[in-house]
Amino acid sequence: MTYLKEIKIVLVDDHKLLRDGLRNIIEQRSNMHIIGEASDGREAIKTCLKLAPNVIVMDVAMPGLNGIEATKQIHKENSDIKIIGLSMHSSKQFIQSMFKAGAFGYLLKDGDADELITAISTVMQNKKYLSRDINQEFLTVLKEKKALEKTQLSSREKEVLQLIAEGKSSKETGEILFLSPKTVDVHRNNIMKKIDLHTIPELTKYAIQQGLTSLDL
Which residues form the Response regulatory domain (predicted)? Predict the structure, then answer.
């Protein structure tokens, strides 16, 4: 896998020996450059927000502030930075926590040099990367969970959906919820986009399946 654009990278690990090893591997690639290093989570946040690298290789378990919390804070401030978790731990708890914090990849420390380069190239293409030694099924579960979160309706949207399913017009729904008909229509359109259903009968069936109304089909 090749990515020709110059890639600026920051290394974060509390062991200098490991950082030196990663640097030696990465800088063999002409398009990959280490622009900074950090030895703990707090230093990582300061360094990465200042330098704005393309990629961070982030140790997950560090004293002071761990890589998960550092990832969360960096991702919140600059979501364009691709963060790859680096860890000895292959448990779902660590992996899920890193991805939830905003990481784009997860590598095990006993992986080989080629996999590190592959991971960096992959995340630079806006694709997730999970270590070959970890069950790929877990990444599928994460994607499904993320997709499910996107489809979750807000409390207001659920109220609107229930009233639509019960046959109320936009005007009637607005009067009940103290909203303008135009606002009701906006909510209805958002609901349709979220759950990918586009007719009133489909919305009604969905509302019944979700327990929002007890109407019989």
Answer: 8-124
| Tally of domains in the chain | 2
Query: CB under 8 Å to 35, separation ≥6 — which residues?
Result: 8, 9, 10, 51, 53
- Per the DSSP assignment, residues forming a β-bridge with 58 are 12, 85
Burial of 11 (0-12, 13-18, 19+ CB in 10 A): buried
Q: Could you tell me the residue range of the domain that residue 168 belongs to?
A: 152-209
Judge if 113 and 164 occupy the same domain. no
Q: Is the pTM of this model over 0.70?
A: no
Which residue among 114, 147, 180 closes a domain? 147
Domain stop point among 121, 147, 173: 147
In this structure, are 64 and 95 located in the same domain? yes
Whether 111 is covered by a domain: the verdict is yes
110 CB-near residues (< 8 Å, 6+ apart): 88, 133
The C-alpha atoms of residue 135 and residue 95 are separated, in whole angstroms, by 11
C-alpha 192/C-alpha 100 separation (Å) is 26
Each residue of 101-128: b (16+ CB within 10 Å) or e?
Answer: bbbbbbbbeebeeeebbbbbbbbbeeeb
In whole angstroms, give the CA distance from residue 85 to residue 71. 9
Q: Which residues pair with 86 in a beta bridge?
A: 59, 107
- Dump pLDDT digits (tens) for 158-202: 889 989 988 999 999 999 999 999 999 999 999 998 888 889 999
